[in-house]
Write a structure and sequence with these properties.
The C terminus is likely disordered. The longest helix has 29 residues. Helices cover 62% and strands 6% of the residues. The chain has a ten-stranded mixed beta sheet with strand order 5-4-3-2-1-6-9-8-10-7, sandwiched between helices. It is α/β, with parallel strands linked by helices. Helix 1 packs parallel to helix 40.
Length: 1176
Amino acid sequence: MDIHIWYTLLSAVIGGIMGARARLGQIRTLEMVHKRFESFPAAFVKNLVSSHAKRMPLNAQASQESQDLNKAYAAMFSPFWNEIIKCLREEDFISNREMDLLSVPSNTGSLRLVQWPLFLLSSKILLAIDLALDCKDTQTDLWNRICKDEYMAYAVQECYYSVEKILHSLVDGEGRLWVERIFREINNSIQEGSLVITLSLKKLPLVLSRFTALTGLLIRNETADLAKGAANAVYQLYEVVTHDLLSSDLREQLDTWNILAKARNEGRLFSRIEWPRDPEIKEQVKRLHLLLTVKDSASNIPKNLEARRRLEFFTNSLFMDMPSPKPVSEMIPFSVFTPYYSETVLYSLSELRVENEDGISTLFYLQKIFPDEWENFLERIGRGETTGDADLQENSSDSLELRFWASYRGQTLARTVRGMMYYRRALMLQSYLERRSLGVDDYSQTDATTQGFGFSRESRAQADLKFTYVVSCQIYGQQKQRKAPEAADIALLLQRNEALRVAFIHVEETGSTDGKVTKEYYSKLVKADAHGKDQEVYSIKLPGDPKLGEGKPENQNHAIVFTRGEAIQAIDMNQDNYFEEAMKMRNLLEEFRANHGIRPPTILGVREHVFTGSVSSLAWFMSNQETSFVTLGQRVLAKPLKVRMHYGHPDVFDRVFHITRGGVSKASRVINISEDIYAGFNSTLRQGNITHHEYIQVGKGRDVGLNQIALFEGKVAGGNGEQVLSRDVYRLGQLFDFFRMLSFYISSVGFYVCTMMTVLTIYIFLYGRAYLAFSGVDRAVAREARILGNTALDAVLNTQFLVQIGVFTAVPMIMGFILELGLLQAVFSFITMQLQLCSVFFTFSLGTRTHYFGRTILHGGAKYRATGRGFVVRHIKFAENYRLYSRSHFVKALEVALLLIVYIAYGFTRGGAVSFILLTLSSWFLVISWLFAPYIFNPSGFEWQKTVEDFDDWTTWLMYKGGIGVKGDQSWESWWDEEQTHIQTLRGRVLETLLTLRFFLFQYGIVYKLHLTGKDTSLAIYGFSWVVLVGLVMIFKVFTYSPKRSINFQLLMRFMQGVTSMGLIAALCLVVAFTNLSIADLFASILAFIPTGWAILCLAITWKSIVRSLGLWESVREFARMYDAGMGMVIFAPVAFLSWFPFISTFQSRLLFNQAFSRGLEISLILAGNKANVDM
């Protein structure tokens, strides 16, 4: 355990230092994005633009000027940046207004300076005018004040040049001469430093209002009335500038200018204007209008937190070290590969509308969790904010968009496909711009638009040569045959993504002459044809049923033949991708050619972003825990430890290396349940090299409910237990050098061993203290320790407490927060997590990992556990939680509680109750966490009505007898039988027997501490306690005798039960009255006999065949039912008590979900309560 603690601390420090050196977290706020935006184009061109696209039409003189060079960089940067912003708009993370403010102008026009996005320049003109109005100094002083804000200086310069260019394009004849004269005079005064004399700066707001009125007309489509209005606006601008803005000398010169005066007198001056038709002028008019009219600061744009995070990470990655990209035509071709079975492809309207018992639908839940994205979605499809769900469903196109909008916020195949197809979109844009820069195929170097890159046949062909996406939908053929909705949704994805390919197993049945039906298996690859129908691309006959081992790896193995290229990116169906990250794929693939030591890379590790963190507090805990591992944890594993394996599916494989060395997936049943890590084992054993890269990220979904998380962690822990038994780990241990072997151990199998040791430490300590308490040695030990000054035990206990509650396991997470969010945000996030009871969650997870890892070590038989990836908006019933956690957490927690009660009742602690609390605080915290975490993190877990319904459901389940075909979720008896299936081998039975013997300690110790026995320590006392226990069992049998067997003498049985009841009460009264037996002794006896009874039950279950042959199995089952009923009541009573108080439920909603959903939930319940009145 000490090694585990030191590794956790050192890995956090080393990982933090390495991350800082890699420049992670340098841009972590929107303010930093604003401040460093000037440097983005140059960094982008350096790292993400290939040598072909860098060929710019610059002459020798211009290339020497930094302004022109920056403008060229901005021109290359703008199409990529604007496509990123467009994708954010399509994903509804930003609104139309935000898209306009975030877009970068093309910078290919004749304007002499770099044009920056409006979100950097908004309100700067208004602030500059305020400075001018307050100016009482020289022109130089005014300009120096403006230049203190560099973006204000950019805004002023751009506004000046744009006004000149727009006015020059609008007018001709005498009007153009006036424009040229005005700007010539202003330029001269600027050079002479007399601008504040030439112009009356107090009149600038008036000029601004006139010009804003003009641009407001020009951004609209031309009509006769608008043309007259625009001409009038120009004339009013002329009047204001000439008679108000200019100095008196200039005003007289212009008034007496004959050419101008003649035109004005004849009514020809500005009588007609040339409406903007040139794309460059139209773009400048629109941009200038926004520049002059956006009054509020754009410092908080974009508002959406996910859009901010993505832009911050992308811009930060521009300054990280990465290989230079090759042109698209020369890059390494690659495939993306996704296994799919029967998960959700696309949410149907019925799934979105269906309400749970609280009246909460999935669509309502999403609208409350993502309110800004819902508003942006309505804006995108042209609907108002008040549009109801029913209105959307009336229109077929809107209803389809609604389905996609909801599906893109869940863990669906549609989301994964959209994300992975960004690779093709990025390659098409990169290829288009490379060919344009070379001037080939009629592309023009001065053509500013990239709108048509998606329609360029050459770009599409180039992208298709370099990128292939195969989704292995194993049972797609069966789904089509039975017309499952998943098949129709997959077909829809094929139609919307022309480069998507679907592989599946096709089964053909043929009859022979002798009447036997034979099956032939084919691996098939299909795509969508021009009519949207499935078109077969390849069909490969298989020698038999390919599904021999675990489902997911077999799904990958049968379809890997359809991938192409030299690299494969393995992607799960609950992942996502982003356009801005897809642009960096060329850089990542060049890592295969880079120098990474003696051996070239065979697996490129990729950073993950867990996108499910906003769903609930549990999802946030899981997201932070997972993010810590896939960033800082894997960073250290890859370098310097060199023991990173393959964990999950964003990694990029060397395709040729792996398909010639056993493939990417081992599929043997049970042993390869965690199939992904075996790919890393295989690669390392065959002298491969696994690296990790953090300048690119892929989205990843995680489980969001406690039951989902527990099942997932159970699967991983069980899979790790199987790894202990695998020959791959044995061979790695044999072949690694000593230090690498230790690193591999502590980062894989050792982590679960140390986790189990943490829990075992509690048991060993408490059983040791119980033994000392029963024997009376603890007082003497404490006295001797005090005399000798030995405090080692206290130190060990404190360390164990810190490890147990997850403080040490959170150290890497805190370091990751500090590195990528900053110190203050890291402290705030950690405190928030603690207030949301993250320690309870981590302690509960400790028990999950310990149970499943330990069970796999003892008995083997790890299995895949389907967690489900939906939104957890439903209340989990008490019985369901009890079934899932009874043996893994509840039994163990109650055992620890019994030990603690024995410790406080019979033990000695120097310092009294305070010392006892300090010594056992962590253990009590563990007990509470293991018993009540499933109900604390259960939606509506403390609502009185739900609690009443849960109790009825639980008692029904407990008393239902079951039978053949009855499942465990319907009957306690069926569930109880299922819980025993893991005990299969003689070795397992012997080990279970040895572990069960510990429960006999309670009775053995307590009977000698009773007042009744005094100081008598003879063995007969212990024997007599067994006689009492047998008597109690017989009494129990009398009271629970089956009515079916006593039907002939029911009256006699009822008489016997009555006599027994009265005799038992009389006997107790007599014993208490005439012996030393006290009331405390009665409770102590219960404390002694409960563990003994549980031990007998465990032994009976372990040796089930022997007990059944003796005819005692029915009695064992009834005793087990009584124990489960008792445990359930112990857990249920506090839940029911807390449910009496309404504020507890409100607090839990705030704790579990974000405030928007909690507020919406309460409003929905109020409305639901008034539905009856509305209907009437």
